[in-house]
Amino acid sequence: RNLWITSMAVLNNLSHKIAIASTSKEIMIYDLQSKKGTSCTCRIQGLPYAPLSLHYWSSSKESILCYGDVHGNVTAFLFGKTDSPNLFEPNTRQTSENDGENVTEVLYE
């Protein structure tokens, strides 16, 4: 199965982080300055359709990550904490990748 990267957004208020959308119906957040090189720090899984475009906006009080998908939907994630390196709440599932780094997995419901 072919995997395509469909969009990328710079998370401008979070140091060295980008969000990448793919045809695997996921949005991944990567840390470009990880101790082990570029690493995935968060994965939003279970999207109903493949995301085609990403946009990220932030202010001193909140930030928004939104995406448009192949079905014509636009979805936005609103985050109230803009200074934290992890946008998602601590109750999201932490997994350990093969290289030993933790990845926050968020299941879209």
The main sheet comes to: 6 strands, mixed
- How would you classify the helix and strand content by structural class? mainly beta
DSSP helix fraction = under 10%
Strand order of the largest sheet: 1-2-3-4-9-8
Distance between the termini: 25 Å
The shape, in one word, is globular
Whole-number mean pLDDT = 82
Return the string of H and E elements. Answer: EEEEEEEEE
> What is the count of β-strands?
9
Q: Give the low-pLDDT segments.
A: none
Rg from alpha-carbon coordinates: 13 Å
Task: Tell me the number of helical segments per DSSP (H or I, 4 or more residues long).
Answer: 0
Q: Hey, roughly how much beta strand do the residues contain?
A: over 45%
Report the oligomer.
single chain
Describe the structure.
This protein is mostly beta strands and 109 residues long. Helices cover 0% and strands 56% of the residues. The protein is built from no helices and 9 strands. It has a 6-stranded mixed beta sheet, with no helix packed on it. A 3-stranded antiparallel beta sheet has the order 5-6-7, with no helix packed on it. The chain is globular and about 30 Å long. The protein starts with a strand and ends with a strand. The mean pLDDT is 82.
